[in-house]
Structure formats: structure tokens, C-alpha cells
Amino acid sequence: MSRITEIIESHPNTPDGLHVQTLSDCIVACLECAQACTACADACLGEEDVAHLAQCIRTDLDCADVCTATASILSRSTGGGLATVRAVLRACQAACAQCAADCEAHAQMHEHCRLCAEACRRCEQACADLLAVIG
Which pLDDT belongs to residue 95? Predict the structure, then answer.
């Protein structure tokens, strides 16, 4: 059991029927994606042809910010407010899809882009999984 799962389960107001593992998995995916995107943007800045990677850097940074915000909101989601949770999950899916597509375009030339795209696709799926269980 992860620390995130333990903390969610220890919350005094955890609603019955909350899919704790799905929620925890999504938080972890968001945090890992944010880290991957931040590191990818930094690695892109270290490449010789930075101008060619400008859009990738922008989407990396946007995705990192959205994933960080999503993880924070999900960490407070045991009290309700599902409309906001659904909206942020959809936004995170969109940011991850765009970032993955941008990084996939560079994946054959840059390993950091390939790894980032994989993290984005995992996060995109984790958001979809959580959306499926919260309705």
C-alpha cells in the first residue's frame, strides 16, 4: 500500500464507495507526469536545436503545471466537489494528450521526449480511469 493510499484511507471524512486505489493511482500518475514533463523541458533546453523544441517545451511546462494542480485537487477530493474534480481531470487528460503528442514527435531523436510521452500517456489513462469510477 502506498503512502498516498494510506493517507487517503486515514482521512476522517472518506466517503463510502470512494475508489481509493484508483484515486491514489491517479495522484501518483499526475505527480510522476509533472516530474517527467519538467525534466523533459529542462533536457530540451540543453539540446543544440532549442528553437525546434520550443513548442515541446511549452507543452511540457503546461502539462507539468496542470498535473501538479490536478494532484493537489485530487488530494483534497474526499470532501466532495466532484464537478471541479471532473473538470480538472478532463483538463489534465487534454494537457497530457497534447504533451504526449508533441513529445512523441521527437521521441526517436530524444530519449527524454520518449520517456515523457510515456508518462503523459499513463497519466492520461489514470485520469480516464478515475473519471470512469466517479461518473
Answer: 98
First-residue to last-residue Cα distance in the chain: 25
pTM: 0.92
Q: Are 107 and 113 in contact (CB under 8 A)?
A: yes
8 Å CB contact between 60 and 117? no
Opening angle at CA 20, ends 16 and 25, nearest 5 = 160
| Domains with residue ranges and CATH for the chain | 19-134 (1.20.1270.360)
d(CA 45, CA 121): 22
What pLDDT score does 36 carry? 98
Reduced 3-state DSSP string for the chain:
CCHHHHHHHHCCCCCCCCCHHHHHHHHHHHHHHHHHHHHHHHHHHHCCCHHHHHHHHHHHHHHHHHHHHHHHHHHCHHHCCHHHHHHHHHHHHHHHHHHHHHHHCCCCCCHHHHHHHHHHHHHHHHHHHHHHHHC
Mean pLDDT of 73-93: 86
